[in-house]
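Database export, one record per block. Field names are fixed; values are copied verbatim from the stored entry.
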Amino acid sequence: MAHPGKPLVWLRGEVKTPPFGWEARLEAGFLLRRVQQGEVLGLPHSRPLPAIGAGCHELRIRDRDQNWRIVYYIDRDAVVILDVFAKKTAATPKTVIDACRARLATYKRLG
């Protein structure tokens, strides 16, 4: 059996159907597994989010009529999920960026 890779640490959000469509949920799981196994994903699947912090990225999941984002941080021994949200605007909302920064700071402080 292949090594499962880094564990996922969920600080906020979840990926389930609903609200995710079945195919979008499968894609999210597949992409998260690739990240867990150490693969560095690029566009169109993932992009860096330096506004939150070094090592932060967002997965980009297209659903039937919705765009989802999974904000994650790659730590030495885990992949930390900072937020899961429906993307409704071109830019990542400032409230999401601020909340993710705070969660990341708390995670690092307690880790």
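Remark 1: The beta strands are 8-10, 46-48, 56-62, 67-74, 79-87.
Remark 2: The first strand starts at residue 8 and ends at 10.
End of record.
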